[in-house]
Prior knowledge:
It is a single chain. The chain has twelve helices and ten strands. By secondary structure, it is α/β, with parallel strands linked by helices. It has two domains: 33-126 and 255-324, Bordetella uptake gene, domain 1 (D-Maltodextrin-Binding Protein, domain 2); 127-236, D-Maltodextrin-Binding Protein, domain 2, CATH 3.40.190.10. Helix 7 links the parallel strand 5 (156-159) and strand 6. Helix 1 (4-16) runs antiparallel to helix 2 (23-29), helix 5 (99-106) crosses helix 12 and helix 7 packs across helix 12 (304-324). It starts with a helix and ends in a 6-residue tail after the last helix.
Amino acid sequence: MLNPRASLRAAGLAVACGIAVTPAIALAEYPDKPVTLVVPFAAGGPSDKIARDVAEALRKTLNQTVVVENTTGAGGTIGTARVARANADGYTLLVHHIGLATAPSLYRKLGYKSSDLEFLGLINEAPSTLIGKPQLAPNTLADLRKLIAADGDKLNLANAGVGSASHLCGLMLQSMLKSKMTFVPYKGTGPAMSDLMGNQVDLMCEQATNSTPQIEGKKVKAYGVSSLQRSAVPALANVPTLNEAGLPGFNFTVWHGLYAPHGTPPAVLTKINTALRAALKDPELIKREEALGITVVTDDRLSPAGHKKFYETEVAHWGKIIQDAGIQPE
Length: 330
């Protein structure tokens, strides 16, 4: 194996002599310093937790320190722009969720284009749950649908802000029900969930990673899980999917992917993708993800090409839903 210092000396000598550095040398060098995973959301949230789990697993597969940094603001677009403008050397990577696919429809101006990023592979998917305040009368989705059909505009549907997973899930729910509800945006999941548990708002479609403890504690009512398959989490085992409970085809999952700046050397991209594949087989990571109801991706979307194709499908899918809802880009 080529010693990293030796490879650096070789690279320096090659540059001094006007000789191009070969991909083999670049690959041998990577990673010879800590790698940064940028999360475009606040610490402590679902994306941050997932990124830290992935960082720990990547540390083992890359045999290098992997640091998580939170760069928040503007629905995740500020952190994304930071990575898009970073040096294309594989040392600054992005962990982002479904919001990357909805941003083009929600914001007039972005500090980046999708072509500014290299797609490295999808990481995981997590369902959401449709939950209601404790005092909401219906106990089943069938009865809730009747209430929405009769008085939908009088029902408040809370979310964690424009472009959040709860907002997107609510838009999809409204689209499939063909009924208008009153959307109530909050500055984060915490205050929205607090008001729901306090009977200040009626409904919320929130990630299972956040809602499961409230369902388990009977602090909210659970009407359905947003994925096609029921959750394996014990607290959600008896909660039907929205698909089986009267909304055929309803399938909403919050996914996360890994990205690098455009122009990162192919050899480095391949090494990162290989490390990601190995990381997602880590038993400790899988155990932590499954405990939260999260499914680790194992299909073709784990490849760069499959990831990009899936992303493009999601951009088109959500673009139509957002347009049909009459939401104007900010």
